[in-house]
């Protein structure tokens, strides 16, 4: 499809450890359209940061396996050599704001210089031109221009996070991946950063992948939601569908576990623990905790396409659950 910006098929990232391979990302497929915000939601340890690193090719030393096909626009980026990927894609077309990166700013370099740095490094822009562009991005993310001459320790946490965002945006990437961008901030600052992201999406048409464990944060920006569980995506659909009427039993339980104002029903915890990624079960990875499991769940389910509630055209609602097997015995059909 022409308006598809990112297409990811069968992405995998496994780590080598003494106990064996940790299958942190295990056969993940999804796409992102131009101008769209996809939220990747999942509890701690399910592989969200690993997914971001696999997309950005930020691979650790103890890599056991990195696989899958990824294209960005018309470019099959997974086929590029590491050198071409670094030169032509990483940070310039696809940028990542890493978890806690606001604490990783260089303490002895002025913030303006740091924001301008990607342009000087990647595009070889002269200093003055790069600083002019950095000033534009400062305004975009709501940083006062006189902060260009400050050092990171002279900025609050929220302002540092805006600076990190400015650094990701300065080379005008088509896609920005944000890994828990607001989880270290207080709620008012979180809301201010989410507003900046919404404005960027509206004004620049930037596509986002927002990675978070926080359902409330995710609902702010999401056009679509993909829910991750134990290294796999279990459901991907429009945000309206996910927050209103999710299909996968895990999605439904997750939504019931979120505390809400004005609701009598108390939030319910999901019993049990996710499986180890060292030796995940061969069948459905959620089965051990699933109140709806049946015999079929001993086999690994594929992602079934659901045709309901997504409007005309190709369905983009995928659910990895045997209950949705067409003509299957699971009941939801
Ligand atoms: N370099 C590594 N070597 C071995 N195991 C790793 C490595 N990095 C991550 N893991 C493991 O991979 C799994 C997924 O980790 P990851 O950080 O991607 O999850 P996450 O969903 O982002 O969690 P969180 O929200 O807590 O950061 C975890 O079990 C983690 O312990």
TrEMBL record:
Record keywords, A-Z:
ATP-binding, Cell inner membrane, Cell membrane, Membrane, Nucleotide-binding, Translocase, Transport
ABC transporter domain location is: 6-255
Question: What InterPro entries has UniProt attached to this entry?
Answer: AAA+_ATPase, ABC_Ni/Peptide_Import, ABC_transporter-like_ATP-bd, ABC_transporter-like_CS, Oligopep_ABC_C, P-loop_NTPase
Q: Name one GO molecular function term.
A: ATP binding
Q: State the CDD domains in the record.
A: ABC_NikE_OppD_transporters (cd03257)
Q: Does the record bear Cell membrane in its keywords?
A: yes
Question: What does the UniProt entry say about where the protein is found?
Answer: Cell inner membrane
Q: Which Gene3D superfamilies match?
A: P-loop containing nucleotide triphosphate hydrolases
Query: Where is it mainly found?
Result: membrane
Which topology term describes how it sits in the membrane? Peripheral membrane protein
Q: Which NCBIfam families match?
A: oligo_HPY
Q: Which family does it belong to?
A: Belongs to the ABC transporter superfamily.
Q: How is this protein named in the record?
A: ABC transporter ATP-binding protein
Organism of origin is Halomonas tibetensis
